[in-house]
Amino acid sequence: MKTLIYQPTNNSLYVFFIKFLFWSAIFQYTVWQLHHHAFLSELLLNSLAQLAEKFCALFTNNILLDANKLIHADTSRYIIIDQQCSGLTLIATLLAAFCSLPIKKSEKLAMSLIAIVAIQALNILRISHLFFEIKHPINHFEIYHLYVWQFINFVSSMGVFYLLQQHFLKRKGNQN
User: Fold this and answer.
1) Which H or E element spans position 72?
2) pLDDT digits (tens, 9 = 90+) for 4-15
3) 3-state SS string over 4-67?
């Protein structure tokens, strides 16, 4: 009796997956290195805190900023933007997916830049929401932080990937 061994073919999904694993390892390692480089990590986290503070300032003037800490001036409650708040691991995964697509490098770069801006804009919104949530003595910070925003991040990143991939596919189809 002959045993059949599954030999993967060179189909596009298989190639995408192998490339995705390769690029994921590279980008996630880069994020890990960035988080372990004190100066760059502090620069990123302080910049995120400053952007979130500017966004929150549109709605309140009772906000204090201390490096990567956002503080409610009236309650002294605060949140700290740490490495898990940077959004870089999500961005690294999206960049790996874009690099794995069979498209031109210029399109990959454009998709990556758009995705970075979109994910960081969502991240600023997330940080701001959590900042306003922590202000109250009885709040749902943990639920929002661990569940709601994780779901929103996942769905948003999938949406960004799908929409950008479809947009560039249609552009490619219109050029042919």
Assistant:
1) strand 69-72
2) 544 445 678 888
3) CCCCCCCCHHHHHHHHHHHHHHHHHHHHHHHHHCHHHHHHHHHHHHHHHHHHHCCCCCCEEEEC
b/e burial code for range 84-98 (CB count within 10 A of at least 16 → b):
ebbbbebbbbbbbbb
3-state secondary structure of 80: strand
56 and 131 in contact (C-beta within 8 Å)?
Answer: yes
Half-sphere exposure (Cβ direction) of 37: Cα atoms closer than 13 Å: 10
What's the mean pLDDT when you consider all of the chain? 90
Angle between helices 12-36 and 38-56 in degrees, nearest 10:
100
Handedness of CA 139, 140, 146, 148 (dihedral sign): negative
Q: Are 53 and 70 in contact (CB under 8 A)?
A: yes
Structure confidence at residue 170 as a pLDDT band (50, 70, 90): confident
Q: How far apart are the first and last CA of the chain?
A: 50
Tell me the whole-structure pTM to 2 decimals. 0.86
DSSP string, 84-121: GGS-HHHHHHHHHHHHHSSS-HHHHHHHHHHHHHHHHH
Q: Among 144, 163, 140, which residue's Cα sits nearest to residue 153? A: 144
